[in-house]
Write a structure and sequence with these properties.
Blueprint: E1 2-5, E2 18-22, E3 26-31, H1 42-47, E4 52-55, E5 62-64, H2 65-76, E6 81-83, E7 90-95, E8 99-103, H3 105-112, E9 117-121, E10 126-128, E11 133-139, E12 143-145, H4 146-155, E13 162-166, E14 171-177, H5 179-182, H6 190-199, E15 204-211, H7 215-227, E16 232-236, H8 247-253, E17 257-261, E18 272-276, E19 279-284, H9 287-290, H10 295-304, H11 311-315
Parallel strand pairs: 14-15, 14-16, 16-19
Antiparallel strand pairs: 1-4, 2-3, 5-12, 6-7, 7-11, 8-10, 8-13, 9-11, 17-18, 18-19
């Protein structure tokens, strides 16, 4: 820190706040610590009695907070992000488009463990909207040892911490089973819910097959939708463990690879996911009909972001997988599914 005349301070960095006081009018900070003095600041500084200023003296091996924040942003940010202007060592990360927020939580922990620098984010696997703030970085001291930033850069040399995966709109085929629906005894309630939810992501529903509880016919219907160009097939009905609920076995009979049948999520425990090649086949439990938010809402954005889910992804849902079923649903701005 050094003391210099105000007239010589353009381009220098303030080491302290400067308060402006006009009796009966204002008493507030006119210039904050870390502010870079501009030519137009000089008249105001003189008017509030500042002939000299204490400014940061650039020193080899040390960085100003703003320069350090820019370097943090560059090494931490992946695809799908825009940024606020750097201010007081802080930069906000903003979603460039609708998509799935992906956080490397291990690297995030290691970065924040370095001290004097922070990166805070929304939860991993959060479905975000264009323009939404998703993360923010901040350098704590006004001046930081450059070695600390070099450690952060080395940590993230191979992988980024924050990225947004864009959704890929898919063509969807729906297979609804159940003799009661097939014979018209009750009206299908699954179809409208599924259509609404997938169309919110820009997907096209190719159509819906309504069948009795016949394993062979269900298998055939799933394959027919794939043959017609479906990039995802969603099956409803017959997902419990009752002897006449044959949808899971019918899905497996297509030759698809079973990822999970059952998941530690409530509502949504009797969920099934399988892949036939690259095509996801979902078996939805009955709760999707009547519960506002279920496992379907957790999994659908990840599938549309072209993640290929594995069993471990579902096992991790146990932490945070219990929905409070609030009277007014605020998902995704709540704890549901946020343990992963």
């Amino acid at each position: 820190m050094k003391k210099i005349p105000v007239k010589d301070a353009v381009g220098s960095v303030l080491c302290h706040d400067i308060t402006q006081i006009i009796p009966g009018v204002v008493k507030d900070i006119a210039f904050k610590k870390g502010h870079i003095i501009k030519e137009e600041d000089i008249p105001l500084l003189l008017s509030i009695g500042k002939e000299n200023l204490f400014v940061w003296e650039k020193k080899e091996g040390y960085l100003h907070e703003n320069d350090a924040a820019e370097r943090l942003r560059a090494c931490a940010a992946g695809q799908g992000l825009t940024f606020s202007e750097v201010k007081e060592g802080k930069i906000n990360f903003i979603a460039e488009y609708d998509g799935l927020l992906v956080i490397n939580t291990k690297l995030l922990y290691e970065l924040n463990s370095l001290g004097e620098i922070i990166l805070v984010t929304l939860h991993n696997n959060y479905p975000v909207k264009k323009g939404q703030k998703v993360a923010g970085t901040r350098v704590i001291p006004l001046v930081i040892d450059e070695d600390k930033i070099k450690k952060a850069e080395a940590l993230m040399e191979q992988q980024k911490i924050v990225s947004i995966l864009p959704y890929v709109a898919m063509k969807v085929g729906i297979v609804t089973t159940g003799s009661e629906v097939y014979h018209g005894r009750i009206k299908d309630a699954f179809g409208p819910v599924i259509r609404r939810k997938v169309e919110e992501y820009g997907c096209e529903v190719l159509g819906q097959s309504i069948l009795s509880d016949d394993e062979n016919k269900i298998t055939q219907a799933v394959q027919e939708w794939i043959d017609k160009g479906a990039e995802m097939v969603i099956c409803t009905g017959g997902m419990s463990v009752d002897p006449d609920d044959v949808t899971p076995s019918a899905i497996i009979k297509t030759g698809a690879e079973l990822i999970t049948y059952g998941a530690p999520v409530l509502p949504g425990a009797m969920f099934l996911l399988a892949y036939k090649g690259d095509i996801p086949i979902l078996g939805l439990p009955g709760c999707v009909m009547y519960s506002r938010t279920t496992i379907f809402d957790l999994v659908l954005p990840r599938i549309l972001a072209k993640e290929r889910l594995c069993f471990a992804d579902f096992a991790a849902y146990g932490h945070g997988g219990l929905c409070n079923e609030c009277e007014e649903c605020k998902y995704p701005d709540c704890a549901f599914g946020k343990g992963v």
